[in-house]
From TrEMBL:
<protein>
    <submittedName>
        <fullName>Uncharacterized protein</fullName>
    </submittedName>
</protein>
<keyword id="KW-1133">Transmembrane helix</keyword>
<feature type="transmembrane region" description="Helical">
    <location>
        <begin position="148"/>
        <end position="164"/>
    </location>
</feature>
<feature type="transmembrane region" description="Helical">
    <location>
        <begin position="52"/>
        <end position="75"/>
    </location>
</feature>
<feature type="transmembrane region" description="Helical">
    <location>
        <begin position="6"/>
        <end position="27"/>
    </location>
</feature>
<feature type="transmembrane region" description="Helical">
    <location>
        <begin position="112"/>
        <end position="136"/>
    </location>
</feature>
<keyword id="KW-0443">Lipid metabolism</keyword>
<keyword id="KW-1208">Phospholipid metabolism</keyword>
<keyword id="KW-0472">Membrane</keyword>
<keyword id="KW-0444">Lipid biosynthesis</keyword>
<feature type="transmembrane region" description="Helical">
    <location>
        <begin position="81"/>
        <end position="100"/>
    </location>
</feature>
<dbReference type="Pfam" id="PF02660">
    <property type="entry name" value="G3P_acyltransf"/>
</dbReference>
<keyword id="KW-0812">Transmembrane</keyword>
<keyword id="KW-0594">Phospholipid biosynthesis</keyword>
<dbReference type="GO" id="GO:0008654">
    <property type="term" value="P:phospholipid biosynthetic process"/>
</dbReference>
<keyword id="KW-0808">Transferase</keyword>
<dbReference type="GO" id="GO:0005886">
    <property type="term" value="C:plasma membrane"/>
</dbReference>
Length: 200
């Protein structure tokens, strides 16, 4: 039990490290003044360019997977429900980071990392496909409201896959999905509401 709790805590701490915010501080950039003020890789990209943006995206993805992936690969954690809770803990760490007084980011990249631990390439590929299609439709860039709609749409398209996997013995994925979607929706609902009201 203590090992499981330790892994969940470590994953939360891993998720709570706000790399975009840290990089921006080093570069003396205030992300709160960029676009929607979100302290994430997307705004860092817009503020200082794609090189730092990709670095931050990679680090956010990685923190969603580590240290959980290491413990799983070593066989230290085997219970799928514990793995799902730890993965969700990492997402919560990013979304409500103690570093930023529990405000945090929108948790998209870190969620990709968590899904990679739980499903390998499957869930990230499904989400990524929806995001890519939306980007192709809007090649000149998207508004904050359109970004929110794209993210929620991706998660809705992911649901049939999760239900299918749940009926085939992977019920823990539904538990993670519910928690992850709740966080994603909470972080995007204002912008999503703006999109639905035609404010994009």
């Amino acid at each position: 039990m203590w090992v499981n709790l330790g892994v969940i805590l470590l994953q939360f701490l891993s998720g709570s490290i706000m790399y975009s915010y840290i990089i921006a501080r080093i570069l003396k950039v205030d992300l709160s003044k960029i676009r929607d003020g979100n302290p994430g890789a997307s705004n860092l990209w817009r503020a200082v360019g794609w090189k730092y943006g990709i670095l931050a995206l990679f680090l956010d993805y990685l923190k969603g997977a580590l240290p959980l992936a290491i413990f799983v690969s070593l066989g230290i954690v085997k219970d799928n429900f514990v793995i799902s809770l730890a993965a969700l803990s990492g997402v919560l760490g990013h979304a409500f980071s103690p570093i930023l007084r529990f405000k945090g980011g929108k948790a998209v990249a870190v969620s990709f990392g968590a899904w990679s631990v739980l499903t390998k390439w499957e869930a990230p590929m499904l989400l990524g496909t929806i995001f890519t299609i939306f980007t192709i439709i809007k090649p000149k860039g998207t508004t904050v409201q359109e970004d929110a709609f794209r993210v929620i749409l991706g998660y809705l398209f992911l649901l049939p896959y999760i239900i299918y996997k749940s009926f085939h013995g992977d019920f823990h994925l539904l538990i993670f999905y519910d928690g992850n979607f709740a966080v994603i929706l909470y972080k995007h609902y204002k912008d999503l509401w703006g999109y639905l009201r035609g404010q994009s």
